Every structure is written in structure tokens, then in C-alpha cells.
Amino acid sequence: MAPHSIGTGTISFGLVSIPIRLYTAASSGNVSFNLLHAKCGSRIRQQTFCPTCNEVVDRASLVRGYEFAKDQYVRVSDDELKSLEGETSKVIDIAEFVPLASVDPIYFEKTYYLGPDKGGDKAYRLLADAMEKNSRVALAKFVMRGKESLVLIRPAKSGLMLHTMYFADEVRDFGEIDRGQSAKIKPGELELALQLIDGLSNDEFKPEQYQDEYRQHVLGMIDQKVEGKEVTTVGPQVQRAQVIDLMDALKESLAKRVASGEKRPLAKAKRDAAPAPAAPKRAQAAKK
User: Which residue range(s) make up the domain with 129?
Assistant: First the structure.
């Protein structure tokens, strides 16, 4: 089935306008459940209840309210919110182009595919090719479903993708978190950690090799129940974390990988013999 567009818009930069369509790029694979009445097995209905009037309220009687003080609300209508969107509600006005590496992934929220709308094929193709050649991504503001979002547009897979992003004041300060700055790392521990990382490293990310095993187990259990089979549940084995010496743990991890025949970590002698700095050598190897 052909993908269904969830909305339209216009990318604008300089005097160029590109009509586009938005498509959902990904969706959660979580297994959804309905709530049933345990007594009769019927699906329950959720109702909106007013404790002051002691009555069930239908949706037509609901209005939006913003709590500006404890139990004090100011009412805001949908029309008032809609009026604030203005003429820019469907215009993605590019503010600047930056290298993708300069954008921390913590700001990414959701992803959408962008496709050209009627009459926008050539301009869409031009922008995608120019951004790909220049290794840049675009930052802009865009109103989606009444909410203004910071968005990033990037060239990918011969097209354009749009990522909605968090604003700076929506991202919590990492400085408030204890990050173990007082811990002292020994040179030997760092060397072993680097070897372990090298042994676990690959040149590219292959998402297809990772599967949601929990979801598969849940669906398998549901199939058994539908077929009328009895399901035996076994509680998860809770293992206590053992406090062991960090150096011993690193050595044991390396030894297990070598014993299992997996990708061998770089030998210490080879690492020591490598010319400094290491970064240029890696870069040269990648070009071969």
C-alpha cells in the first residue's frame, strides 16, 4: 500500500519555495492492550468526570484551561490558539545551514520523510543534491498540529528527512548529574577498555540485526492463549551485581571474546607500536 501523506507544507530559503508532503518515517512496535472488566471480560469505557458537579461530562462541554496558580485557571479557546499560528503555519522557513555533526542527537524528537508536492520536483531535487554535496543540514521553525517546532532537514537516501527537535530550554542540564568526575582512571585500565571497544567495533550500524525479543515473546504468548494452550509463567531471574575489581573485569571480558572466537581485540603491542597520533592512521585506513 502506498504511503499516506499526513500533511503538506512549503520549504522556503532565500526566494526559493518548495511545496512538500510529510510522511511518517517510523512508528512504535509496542504491543497494545485494551482494559477489560475482570468480572465479565468486557472492554471498559473511560469517562470524563467532574467531581464538583458530580457528573460525567461529554467532550462538547470541555474547554482548555491553563493553571497559572494553584487551582486557578485561565480559559483558552481553540480559535485563539489557531489565530496565533498565523500565515507561517505551513511554511518551513530555513534559518541556517550547519554541519550535521554539530547537532547533538539529544535534540532529536521525531522523524518524517519529505517528498515533493505537485510542481516541486525540480526544486526539491536541487535542494537535496546541493545539501548532500555541501554536507550541510538545515535548521528551521515549523508549526505542526498547532505546536511550533524547531526542525532539522537533512539529505538522506537521495531525498530529504525532517526531524522535529526539542528547544534548548526543553533539554535538561547534564551538569546537574553526577558523572563520576572524581574517579581516578589508571593508564592500564584505559588501555584495556580501548582494546575491548576495538574488539566490539564495526564500521557501520546494521539495524536489522537487532530485534525486539520481548515483543516477540509477548506475541508468542498471545498466540498460545488464542489457541487455548496453557501458558506457564516463570519469573525473571534477578541477579545481584557483583562488585569486582575493574581491571579484572576488563581482562575477563577480553579473554571471553578471544575464547569464543569472536573478533579479536587489538593487541597491546600493536597499539603501542602505532605511530602517534592514532586518528590520522584510522582516517588513512578508512580511505583504502
Answer: 7-26+88-169
